[in-house]
Structures are given as C-alpha cells and as structure tokens.
C-alpha cells in the first residue's frame, strides 16, 4: 500500500480514537447541569472520568503530531485557516482541565459552581467546534494557489458546518450520558439512562440529517455505506439503552462515532483539504504529504508504538472498571482528576 494512503487512514484512526474517548468526556462535562442535583452528585459524575480524561486527550496530541509529520501542508493550511476555532478549542480544553483540578480546592459552594460552569463550557465548545471544523474540511474551503485559506471566520459558520457541529455536540452528549449510566449505580444511573433516551431521540434525527446531507452532497458509495452503518449503530445503541444494557449501548455509541468519522474521511479521500473556489487549489494526499523516507520512518515507529498505547489504555480502563455511587465518593475528600 502507498504510504500516503496508509497515513491518511492512520490519521483517521487517531481522530476516531480521540472522538470516541474524549467524546464521552465532553458528554460527561456537559451533563452536569442535567444530572447533578447537588455537589455530591456532581462529584460522582466527575469521578467517572477523573482517572482517564487527561489520558483521552493525548489522542489529540498524537493525531496533531502525526498530521504535522505526515502531511505538513495539510497541517499548515488547517491550523492557519482555522486558527480562531482551533484556538477556542484549545482554550476550552485548558479551561476544563484547570476546572477539574481547582473545583475541590475550596469548600464554598459558589467556588465549585463557577468551576462546574467552566467544565460545562469547556466541554461544549470543543464538542461543537470539532464538528464545525471537520464539516468545513469535507465541504471545502476557499484556498489560493499556495494552499492558503482566503476565507473569513464567518465563512466557516455555514449551515452545513453548523449542522455538523450540532451533530457532534449531541453525539458526544449522549455518549457521555450513556457512559455515566455504565459507570454509576443507584439514582444517578437511572437518571442518566432516562436522559440518554431523551437525548438519543434528538441525536438520531439530527445525526441522520447530517449524514444524509454529507452523503448526497459530498459523499461516495463508501460514504453511504459507512453512514448507513453509523445510523444502524446509533439506533441499536438507543434500543440497548432503552432495555438497560449500558455496556452494549456504550459500545454501539462508540461504533456510531467511529463509523461517522470514517464516513467523513471517506468523503474526503483522496483530498485532504478540498478547495471550494477552484479544484486545482485542493490539497490531496500526494501534494500535502512528507517525503517517502519520512513516512517510512513514521510507519516503523507506529508499528511498535501504537500496540503499546492500545494495551496501556485498555489496561487502564480494565483496572478502573468498577461503578461509582454517592456512597463510594467521600463526603470530605474529592478524588477526581488525581
């Protein structure tokens, strides 16, 4: 296989890992106002991702580094043209991380409420803007002959991209709520399951609309097949949650996100940054890639490093698989994010 093709799909796999794992982190953060009746409830909810949220974010670092090394032209155009939305995502992630660490440093309720609000904002902003960014990549943006973005920030806020942003927001929210029902017991678990049913209905409608739009406007036969698979997985996840099978519901939500991201990458291939104003200005896997030698060295590195990453992360989740409840979270010591 051509190494440029291989690395295109490796980067797709890295973003799938990031969206599946950090996606439920975002959903957990956004669920605080809906499931957190009091401070103890909110502490239980935060503790569900306490040991893993920062590990999940490393997938974004790896994906960004791989993008920079394998497709430097794609990286340069993306990060210069989408500078403001990507900066907002970065600031939101920083805000969320700081809030996890500082909310328990003082006992005053107002102190904790402020940081809880920042957790919600720090989760919702990336969940929305990642969808907007990837939708614009699939749709195409205005590029000049040197592959520089020549549009404005407001050009990125088109109807298709906004629908994509709302889709990722809802997918991550539902994914996170299902994760809470999987990781908790008692009243929180029951409320999370009911909330996942309500958000699931809205998510199915919005996600179906976005996938249909993507398939007919920008997709191929492969896009249609992957989008259909994502739709089936999403509906199956909804039904599993309705029956109280949280493990299956979570697994199928992860499959939904993975298939949806694959559908977007399938819509792109072989382009990586289509030019909406002139197809000749588009970036593809050939004119955006690094040298064959660079890709060869990266391939050997990935061959040995990626299995270790998968094993370590799998082991972490296995060790921390137990459910949490109000009784297992100390009333005096908050153990989240340590």
TrEMBL record:
Signal peptide: none annotated. Its main location: membrane. It comes from the Bacteria. Keywords: Cell membrane, Electron transport, Heme, Iron, Membrane, Metal-binding, Transmembrane, Transmembrane helix, Transport. The keyword Magnesium does not apply. One of its GO terms (cellular component) is plasma membrane. One of its GO terms (molecular function) is electron transfer activity. It is found in: Cell membrane. InterPro entries: Cyt-d_oxidase_su2. Pfam families: Cyt_bd_oxida_II. The chain crosses the membrane at residues 6-32, 74-95, 115-137, 157-183, 195-216, 222-240, 247-269, 297-320. Coiled coil: none annotated. It is a multi-pass membrane protein. One of its GO terms (biological process) is aerobic electron transport chain. Belongs to the cytochrome ubiquinol oxidase subunit 2 family. PANTHER family: CYTOCHROME BD-I UBIQUINOL OXIDASE SUBUNIT 2 (PTHR43141:SF5), CYTOCHROME BD2 SUBUNIT II (PTHR43141). This is Cytochrome d ubiquinol oxidase subunit II. It comes from Cryobacterium cryoconiti. The gene is cydB.
């Amino acid at each position: 296989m051509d190494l440029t093709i291989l690395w295109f799909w490796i980067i797709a796999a890295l973003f799938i890992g990031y969206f599946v794992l950090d996606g439920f982190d975002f959903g957990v953060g956004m669920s605080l106002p809906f499931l957190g009746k009091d401070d103890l409830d909110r502490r239980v909810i935060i503790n569900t991702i306490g040991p893993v949220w920062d590990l999940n974010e490393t997938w974004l670092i790896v994906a960004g580094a791989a993008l920079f090394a394998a497709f430097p032209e794609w990286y340069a155009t993306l990060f210069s043209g989408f500078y403001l939305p990507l900066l907002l995502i970065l600031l939101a992630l920083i805000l969320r991380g700081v809030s996890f660490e500082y909310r328990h440093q003082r006992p005053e309720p107002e102190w904790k409420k402020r940081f809880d609000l920042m957790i919600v904002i720090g989760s919702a902003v990336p969940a929305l803007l990642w969808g907007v960014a990837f939708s614009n990549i699939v749709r195409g943006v205005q590029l000049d002959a040197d592959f520089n973005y020549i549009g404005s920030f407001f050009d990125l806020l088109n109807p298709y991209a906004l629908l994509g942003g709302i889709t990722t927001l809802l997918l991550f929210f539902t994914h996170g709520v299902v994760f809470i029902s999987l990781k908790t017991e008692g009243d929180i678990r029951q409320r999370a399951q009911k909330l996942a049913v309500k958000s699931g209905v809205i998510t199915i409608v919005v996600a179906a609309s976005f996938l249909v739009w993507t398939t007919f406007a920008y997709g191929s036969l492969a896009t249609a097949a992957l989008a259909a698979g994502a739709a089936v997985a999403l509906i199956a996840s909804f039904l599993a949650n309705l029956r109280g099978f949280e493990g299956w519901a979570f697994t199928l939500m992860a499959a939904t996100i993975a298939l949806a991201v694959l559908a977007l990458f399938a819509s792109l291939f072989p382009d990586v940054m289509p030019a909406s104003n002139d197809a000749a200005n588009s970036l593809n896997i050939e004119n955006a890639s690094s040298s064959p030698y660079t890709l060869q060295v990266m391939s050997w590195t990935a061959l040995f490093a990626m299995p270790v990453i998968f094993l370590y992360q799998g082991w972490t989740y296995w060790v921390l698989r137990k459910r949490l409840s109000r009784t297992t979270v100390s009333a005096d010591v908050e153990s989240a994010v340590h």
